[in-house]
Amino acid sequence: MAGVHVTTTINSDPVEYVCPADESLMDVLRDRLGLMGVKEGCGTGDCGACSITLDGQLVCSCLVLGAEAEGRAITTVEGMADGQNLHPLQEQFINNAALQCGICTPGFLIAAKALLDENSDPTETEIRYALAGNLCRCTGYDKIVKAVQAAAKDLRK
Amino acid sequence: MRYESPTTTKEAVALLAQEKGQAYVLAGGTDLLVRLRLDTIEPDLMVDIKRIPAMTEIKKTATGFKIGAAISGATLGKNKALLKAWPGVVEATNLIGSDQVQGRCTMAGNLCNASPAADSVPAMIAAGAKAIIVGKKKRTVAVEKIIIGPGQTILEKGEMIEAISLPAAVKNSADAYLRFIPRTEMDIAVVGVAISLKLKRGVIESARVALGAVAPTPLLVKEAAKAIIGTKLDDEALDALAAACSSACNPIDDKRGTIEYRRRVAGVLAKRTAKIAYERAGGK
């Protein structure tokens, strides 16, 4: 199978890679580029663990081909912190103990950031709907919702 | 598999026509890439249409709207003019999947995937939407004529949908879509009902009623429309609407609902949907 050569931007850095035409962007990010914050849960777009943004749009990277990323801008959880300073969402996930095993956390962080970028003061219901595409099998969501509310408050300051 | 991302419709059509093996159109990929992953398809060629300008724009024309085949649910939901003209179509499309799926899924893809339970399809049918099909020649086909069975459409090899066209909104008209799911989000319709109607002095002058998930294909139910045309949506009209919807159902028994249950819910949901559309159109 001939490879596809892709030039793209990931977390503001220019990146090039070659991947098979049928390889998912999730596999490219993890296995070719070592961005292990992108997690594989289901691989079929149901769990949200592989969430990234593509040109600012929240998507599941398992449902994007690596070849599609040509010329686009990708953000993964690795791009959320500012150097050593964690993003307020990351801080509040820690403060609120909004994780146990951590597999779903990067996806929740990316999806929550996408929500807060659009809506700085979401209601609990809005948060729950916005995060409906992210599954957590440990914490039961309450702590996650509280963490997002706390981070939203921090970000509004 | 080869991956191609042409920048014109002409190029895309040529790629599909020339491919001797299995060729697929990649719009949002929320169904196609799942099938690729599960090995239920083995494509030789995937043609990504998201770099074709004509397929990535929502155009307001003299006769209505032209929605490119690659327009995502998220983009659709942000279009104020469309939301005002066809709220039912937008809300139906926005019910598909999660926010992540909304970032990718398309109306044209929902139509071509041809699931009996597709949310956007009954809404498109009720709205009188047409699919603009390109291939050897261009043809425009009413959405209710596209799906002929679960996973089956009238599209021939080498054909693809370029855009969905919706009529211009008429004064005192509106549409609505409701689906029933046992959860509040992230589920597949047990029943979906879409209704569009036009009022004249509070009386329903014309209407279209479409059902999803209750037959092998989404249904346009003319008897149900007849039941409310000429009425002010009084209780008698609503009961007649519900009866027409229930009797039009030809559902299956599955884990989401039994045949009897789906029939009953179709009637109940039709009443609720009609009330929303009626109110939106300015009826009291």
Automatic annotation (TrEMBL), chain A:
<dbReference type="InterPro" id="IPR001041">
    <property type="entry name" value="2Fe-2S_ferredoxin-type"/>
</dbReference>
<dbReference type="InterPro" id="IPR012675">
    <property type="entry name" value="Beta-grasp_dom_sf"/>
</dbReference>
<dbReference type="Pfam" id="PF01799">
    <property type="entry name" value="Fer2_2"/>
</dbReference>
<keyword id="KW-0408">Iron</keyword>
<dbReference type="InterPro" id="IPR002888">
    <property type="entry name" value="2Fe-2S-bd"/>
</dbReference>
<dbReference type="InterPro" id="IPR036010">
    <property type="entry name" value="2Fe-2S_ferredoxin-like_sf"/>
</dbReference>
<dbReference type="GO" id="GO:0051537">
    <property type="term" value="F:2 iron, 2 sulfur cluster binding"/>
</dbReference>
<protein>
    <submittedName>
        <fullName>Carbon-monoxide dehydrogenase small chain</fullName>
    </submittedName>
</protein>
<keyword id="KW-0479">Metal-binding</keyword>
<dbReference type="InterPro" id="IPR006058">
    <property type="entry name" value="2Fe2S_fd_BS"/>
</dbReference>
<dbReference type="Pfam" id="PF00111">
    <property type="entry name" value="Fer2"/>
</dbReference>
<feature type="domain" description="2Fe-2S ferredoxin-type">
    <location>
        <begin position="4"/>
        <end position="80"/>
    </location>
</feature>
<dbReference type="GO" id="GO:0016491">
    <property type="term" value="F:oxidoreductase activity"/>
</dbReference>
<keyword id="KW-0411">Iron-sulfur</keyword>
<keyword id="KW-0001">2Fe-2S</keyword>
<dbReference type="InterPro" id="IPR036884">
    <property type="entry name" value="2Fe-2S-bd_dom_sf"/>
</dbReference>
<dbReference type="InterPro" id="IPR051452">
    <property type="entry name" value="Diverse_Oxidoreductases"/>
</dbReference>
<dbReference type="GO" id="GO:0046872">
    <property type="term" value="F:metal ion binding"/>
</dbReference>
<keyword id="KW-0560">Oxidoreductase</keyword>
Automatic annotation (TrEMBL), chain B:
<dbReference type="InterPro" id="IPR016169">
    <property type="entry name" value="FAD-bd_PCMH_sub2"/>
</dbReference>
<dbReference type="InterPro" id="IPR005107">
    <property type="entry name" value="CO_DH_flav_C"/>
</dbReference>
<dbReference type="Pfam" id="PF00941">
    <property type="entry name" value="FAD_binding_5"/>
</dbReference>
<protein>
    <submittedName>
        <fullName>Carbon-monoxide dehydrogenase medium chain</fullName>
    </submittedName>
</protein>
<dbReference type="InterPro" id="IPR016166">
    <property type="entry name" value="FAD-bd_PCMH"/>
</dbReference>
<dbReference type="InterPro" id="IPR002346">
    <property type="entry name" value="Mopterin_DH_FAD-bd"/>
</dbReference>
<dbReference type="GO" id="GO:0071949">
    <property type="term" value="F:FAD binding"/>
</dbReference>
<dbReference type="Pfam" id="PF03450">
    <property type="entry name" value="CO_deh_flav_C"/>
</dbReference>
<dbReference type="InterPro" id="IPR036683">
    <property type="entry name" value="CO_DH_flav_C_dom_sf"/>
</dbReference>
<keyword id="KW-0274">FAD</keyword>
<dbReference type="InterPro" id="IPR051312">
    <property type="entry name" value="Diverse_Substr_Oxidored"/>
</dbReference>
<keyword id="KW-0285">Flavoprotein</keyword>
<dbReference type="InterPro" id="IPR036318">
    <property type="entry name" value="FAD-bd_PCMH-like_sf"/>
</dbReference>
<dbReference type="InterPro" id="IPR016167">
    <property type="entry name" value="FAD-bd_PCMH_sub1"/>
</dbReference>
<keyword id="KW-0560">Oxidoreductase</keyword>
<dbReference type="GO" id="GO:0016491">
    <property type="term" value="F:oxidoreductase activity"/>
</dbReference>
<feature type="domain" description="FAD-binding PCMH-type">
    <location>
        <begin position="1"/>
        <end position="171"/>
    </location>
</feature>
